[in-house]
Amino acid sequence: MKQFPSLALTFIEMGQLKAFSLLCVIAVLGACTSTTVDEFRQGETGIERGESIVILGRRHASDYETRAEFVQCVGDRIESGSNAISVIPEQEFVDAMFPWFEPRTAPLRTRDLERLMAEQVVAGKMNEFGVRYMVWLDGYTETTGRTGTISCTVGPGGAGCFGFGSWEDDSNFEARVWDVASLQNVGTISTDATGQSYVPALVIPIPFIARVEANACTRLAEQLKQFVNGG
């Protein structure tokens, strides 16, 4: 008969197995997200063939910065699927427009953009890229409410972990849409996604992660696509 390794579940009592199964069921049901999207429109929108948008992350705050990975995530989703919109990669745009869109010099208000557009070099680069809308993304994901413990041991018979941990993630992002043609803020879209993640452990930890930031990215991108297209 085939011999099982020392970590085999033969040495775990049925009561522990039932408790572990219950924890897994709770985790699967609980590791989900709740996402809310709000839109505030201040002007008419629409985009023509040959026009593009650029999505930039706000990074002037002292305590956090909008992650480049989230900015890219939103851009990738806007460029895909039905009613896709051409998106200029953030780093390509920032490099080409150096130094006007570096974190310390980037425009914070539309009147700052108006002053920049008075510069012939800036206006020329904007025309080359075909930028119709600039989207400023601002926000971050915060982890709170960590509870529980997981302990792991190593002995002559092998290694194993036991315990239960959980935490809550909250992704809060805001997108401001500037119309480069009219030099006005035409709207704001905000998204708030929350979710609870769990890690039950009986011999090995099994994480059930709530995909909070991914859901925030998807929902925000969908709403931005509709907004820019004029829907």
Explain what this protein looks like in three dimensions.
- This protein is an alpha/beta fold and 231 residues long.
- The chain has helices at residues 14-30, 68-78, 90-96, 110-117, 120-129, 212-229; strands spanning 33-41, 52-57, 87-88, 131-155, 158-179, 184-205.
- The protein has a domain at 34-141 and 172-188 and 211-229: Rossmann fold (3-Layer(aba) Sandwich).
- It is 31% helix and 37% strand.
- It has a six-stranded mixed β-sheet with strand order 1-6-5-4-2-3.
- Helix 2 (68-78) crosses helix 6.
- 25% of the residues are buried.
Describe the secondary structure blueprint for this structure.
Elements lengths: L13 H17 L2 E9 L10 E6 L10 H11 L8 E2 L1 H7 L13 H8 L2 H10 L1 E25 L2 E22 L4 E22 L6 H18 L2
Parallel strand pairs: 2-3, 2-4
Antiparallel strand pairs: 1-6, 4-5, 5-6
Helix pairs in contact: 2-6
Keywords:
about 230 residues; alpha/beta; 6-stranded mixed β-sheet; 6 strands; disordered N terminus
CATH topology name of the domain at 34-141 and 172-188 and 211-229: Rossmann fold
Report strand order across the widest sheet.
Answer: 1-6-5-4-2-3
Class derived from helix and strand content: alpha/beta
Low-confidence stretches: 1-15
Q: Percent helix among the residues? A: 25-40%
Largest sheet: 6 strands, mixed
Mean pLDDT: 86
CATH architecture group name of the domain at 34-141 and 172-188 and 211-229: 3-Layer(aba) Sandwich
Broad CATH class of the domain at 34-141 and 172-188 and 211-229: Alpha Beta
Approximate strand percentage:
35-45%
| Secondary structure: number of strands | 6
